[in-house]
Design brief:
- Helices cover 51% and strands 14% of the residues.
- The protein has 13 helices and 8 strands.
- An 8-stranded mixed beta sheet has the order 3-2-1-4-7-6-8-5, sandwiched between helices.
- Helix 2 links the parallel strand 1 and strand 2.
Length: 366
């Protein structure tokens, strides 16, 4: 068998494993070996940390949303962290001082992670709740997350992410992607652990918080992952629904930034590959590492196919272009939108890799 054949079969097998075999195995494991969370009536004190950079458009709504949560008021500490905002973010937040809202204002931008790390030691809650300014929490979200902490094996809880903007704008590719991702996350949570979280809302036990190294890009993945690497468990709480109102979610610039962070977190979170926790190592390798190199796998697949059967290779490219073209009808729009999302996502991953390895991929905020 020639090297082209070997390249074709290995790369094709990795594509199939990453996008189909691994998700199916995760779903099967969740069904066969469930590990239910032992929920209870725990109501630990909670510090809600809201990092904000020029969020005057949403900060009042975010604070009102947080104060309206179905949770004992005496148990909640709300801290708004204005990181060098040049608009009225801090001014608006200070209006809520009489309702117990604290404001930490940095005159100069430190970057989201550095700002968080300076404020975490000041937080008084037993659990730390991280929530983006654009993430609006359903009333029972915090209570649902708190109940999971009744299980001593649970070190962190991830909220259930929704984006009304994607639905309004008809961005079907993004919607399909999130449905697919949360099906995998649901399975991971049920039989083992999540590795990361979404920045819209997640919580950690205070004593399990591990500060990431300076310059970390994807802090919402790395902070939970470092906790998991030390033996903790991160679970998905579908009763803690958060609606993200950020209109920039899913744009190409954001994808490139996240992709650069994905390469970076491979080295920061290498402890997840420890053989002492083979299930965690398998998840990280299958769901993160292979996906990270997927653009190169796809290039190898295309080149090997072109070398073995040029006509088939051209037909494959034509089929991909046809799938990504605008189609009429609900089914056609789903196919074309998902294809465009797949292509754009892998293009962003390539560009993100270039930024990361040229040491230019370290922006502080999205």
């Amino acid at each position: 068998m020639t090297s082209a054949w070997w390249t074709f079969w290995i790369s094709a097998g990795l594509v199939a494993y990453c996008y189909a075999v691994y998700p199916l195995l995760a779903l099967l494991l969740a069904r066969l070996f469930p590990r239910p969370v032992r929920r209870g009536d725990a109501v630990p004190s909670a510090s809600v940390l809201i990092p904000a950079l020029n969020e005057e458009r949403v900060i009042a709504a975010k604070i009102e949303n947080t104060l309206a949560l179905d949770y004992p008021p005496e148990k909640i500490e709300v801290l708004v962290i204005s990181d060098g905002s040049t608009d009225r973010t801090a001014e608006i937040a200070r209006r809520y001082a009489g309702r117990g809202v604290g404001v930490v204002e940095f005159a100069e931008r430190r970057g989201k992670l550095r700002a968080l790390l300076e404020v975490v030691p000041r937080a008084r809650g037993e659990i730390l709740v991280f929530s983006d300014a654009s993430g609006m929490l359903r009333p029972g979200s915090l209570r649902a997350m708190a109940s999971d902490f009744s299980d001593p094996s649970v070190g962190g809880v991830c909220g259930y992410y929704r984006s009304p903007g994607l639905q309004r704008e008809g961005r079907l590719g993004e919607l399909i992607y999130w449905e697919y991702e949360f099906a995998i996350k649901r399975a991971q949570s049920r039989w083992a652990t999540l590795l990361g979280a979404t920045g819209a809302m997640y919580a950690l036990r205070r004593e399990l918080f591990v500060p990431p190294p300076p310059g970390t890009i994807n802090d919402d993945f790395v902070i939970p992952a470092l906790m998991v690497a030390r033996g903790g468990r991160m679970v998905l709480e579908e009763g803690a629904v958060v609606d993200d109102l950020d209109p920039r979610m899913g744009d190409f610039k954001s994808r490139v930034r996240v992709a650069a962070g994905n390469w970076q977190q491979l080295f920061i979170c290498r402890g997840l590959l420890s053989p002492r926790r083979p299930g965690v190592a398998w998840q990280f390798l299958s769901h993160k590492v292979i996906r990270l190199v997927m653009p190169f796998i796809l290039i190898a697949l295309a080149l090997s196919l072109a070398a073995l059967a040029p006509a088939v290779g051209l037909a494959g490219l034509a089929a991909a272009a046809l799938c990504a073209a605008p189609w009429k009808g609900a089914a056609g729009r789903k196919v074309s939108s998902a294809a465009r999302k797949f292509i754009a996502g892998n293009a962003a991953a390539l560009w993100g890799a270039a930024l990361c390895f040229t040491r230019r991929g370290r922006p502080s905020w999205k």
